[in-house]
Structures are given as C-alpha cells and as structure tokens.
Amino acid sequence: MWNFPIAPPQASNFASEFDALFGLLTFLTIFFTAVVGLVVLFFVTKFRRGRTANRSAPVNDHLKLELVWTIIPTLLGLAVFVWGAKLYIQMRTPPKDAYEVFVIGKQWMWHVQHPNGVRENNELHVPIGVPVRLTMISQDVIHGFYIPAFRIQYHVVPGRYTTQWFTPSKEGKYPLFCTILCGTQHSEMGGYVYALPQPKFSAWLANGGNRFQKPALTLGDQGKQLFDKLACTNCHGTQDTLRGPSLAGLYGKTRRFTDGSSVVVDESYLRESIINPYNRITQGYEKTMPVYLYKKQVSEENIRQLIEHIKSLGQPAAPTVAQQLESMAVRPAASSANR
User: What value does the CA radius of gyration of the chain take, rounded to a whole number of Å?
Assistant: First the structure.
C-alpha cells in the first residue's frame, strides 16, 4: 500500500473545519471546470465544420438558463464567503484566558519564550486541550509562522506585534516552517511543535523545559530585574511625579496625550513607549525620557520582559502558569473551537 497522505494530520481545533472548507472549494472548482469543459466539448463537436446541425435559428437569449447560471453560483459564492469569514474571525479572535507564548522571528530561527521564563529555539511545546495564543514579532525582516498540522499561518513583522491562536487536539511532533522568503537561509528556518498531554506539559514546564536545568525566572521577574537595572524607577514610581508618570495599574486604562488624543494602554503602546516615547507624550509631561539610550540597550526579548513587568504593576498577584493551565484544561477542548 502507498503511504501518501493528501494532507497533514488534523491536530488542532481549526483543522477539521479548515479542511472541510478547502474540500468544498476544491470540489466546486473541479465540478464547474468539468461542467464548462463538457459544455464546450459538446458544442465544439455538434457545430464543428461539416456537421449537419441546424444553424438557421440560433438562440440569442434564454432567461431561465441565464438566471440559473447566475443565481446558483452567486448563492454558492456567498455561502463560501460567509463560512470563510466566520472561520477567519474565529481564527483571529483568541480567547482572553489563552495560554500566551512569546515568539521572536530572527534570520534564521524561531525563539520562543513561555510565561514562566522557559526558552526554546526552533521548538514549541504546547498542552493539548488548552487554547494557546502566540504573540509574535520579528527582529529583522518579515517572516511567516506556519504549522501545517494546526492549519495556522500568520505574518511575523518587525516593529509591531501580531497574534494567532489554536488549541492542540492530538499528541505528536509536528513540523514548523517560515512561509516568507526571508534571506539566503530561509529554507533552514524551521523546527518542530510538540503537543503534549496537560500533565506532561506541566511537568516539562516545571522542570524548566529540560530535566537537567532549573526553572527560569518568569518573564515578569526578568522584566523587573531589567527595570531596576535600567533605573526606570528613578522616574516611574508608585505615584506620578514631575519626572514621569506612574506605571502602576496602567495596563488596560486610557492614557491621554499632549496633542489631545488618547489610547487604551495595550502591549503595542507599551512597546512604542519604551523605544519611541516621543511619538506620543503623556499629558502634563515633556520630552525627558532618554530614548536613544534605551533603544540601544533593549532587544525585542527585553522589551517583552519589561512589558510583562509593567502589566503586573499595581495588579493583584497573577496565578502561576500551572494554575492557569489547570483552570483552562477543565474545559473540553471543543469549547475553544466554538468561541
């Protein structure tokens, strides 16, 4: 027997519906191509030179036929559009309580960091039955983060965060690729995703991703160390001062600027404020932050660490990663697909 699968295994909550939509589009394409081809062949054969077909009364219009070949394809097209739009919105709307993993694309590797500080290169370990959100950014050029078995792919671009999510549904080891031509070693920019049962994943995470090394500091703890090292507390304390506004409880609130505009503070705004603080200056303050100093000292990984620390300021203690996974794994895996 030939072992030649026509598609990668279905290993996420999106895979079956994605394949069904793809199968429908393939069927409709083949069906209408065949119908048009057969009709063309029929008329070419019937009215070819030398045949005695009656050509004295050609039919120039046929209302019922025109309605049929207009209305049916239109309804089919609308049905496919609605189905595709629904799936697209679902894939672009991660659950709020998803397990978040930070991904940096570099020439030519994937760097992954988990909330508790565990790092991976060209590998990604994820728990089965738990929604996983990838927050991604590139350190250099545009990349594309693609896991065929999960049927997910999205651009990873420099200068801003992009996200995608999935819920692993089947244990296994699955290839990971970059789908954007990103330089001379683009073909080598790949790796593997390991989908593990939740207890195995929790044990792997608790051991620091490797049974021979101790668990790392969390992203927030690493951010606090960097926050103190860069002397950010000199200007940003627990309360607003003349030198700088407080960052406590800032995440999720509305911040107003000197030009009269405002924004709800999210990760993208925090990143912009760290490396380009003069783009939007907080109301009541001037250009006092040493922008060039910090821009040279922090990498994308450092920025993410600082963001996680800032998000925690003035907030109640966050549950541990193990507690988060336990609470999310209580739900059936299918529930995340219906969000």
Answer: 27
Residue with tokens 């062949």: 41
Cβ contact 200:209 at 8 Å = no
How many whole angstroms from its chain centre is CA 179?
14
Q: What is the pLDDT of residues 302-329, one digit of tens each?
A: 888 898 899 888 776 656 566 666 665 5
The domains of the chain are located at 9-28+66-216+319-339, 231-297
* SS3 at position 138: strand
Amino acid in the structure at residue 66 = E
- Closest alpha carbon to 243 in 231, 225, 255, 259: 231
Given this model, what pLDDT does residue 228 score? 87
Q: Which amino acid would we find at residue 134?
A: L
231-297 fold: Cytochrome Bc1 Complex; Chain D, domain 2 (1.10.760)
**What angle (nearest 5°) sits at the alpha carbon of residue 11, between those of residues 7 and 15?**
65
Spatial distance between the Cα atoms of 159 and 157, rounded to a whole number of angstroms: 7
Question: Phi then psi for 306, rounded to 5 degrees?
Answer: -65, -40
Tokens of 323: 């507690």
Question: What is the spatial distance between Cα 182 and Cα 109, in angstroms, rounded to a whole number?
Answer: 11
Closest CA relative to residue 115, chosen from 241, 209, 244, 234: 209
Query: pLDDT tens, 243-299?
Result: 888 888 888 899 999 888 999 999 888 988 888 888 888 888 888 887 665 666 788
CATH code, 9-28+66-216+319-339: 2.60.40.420
**DSSP 8-state assignment for residue 28:** H
Q: 167: buried, middle or exposed (CB in 10 Å: 19+, 13-18, 0-12)?
A: buried
Outline where DSSP puts E strands in 42-106: 99-106
Non-local CB neighbours of 90 within 8 Å, separated by 6+ positions: 14, 337, 339
- For the record, the structure tokens of 26 come out as 């393939």
pLDDT score at 331: 46
Q: Which 3 state secondary structure label does DSSP give 123? A: strand
Per the listing, tokens 């079956």 go with 16
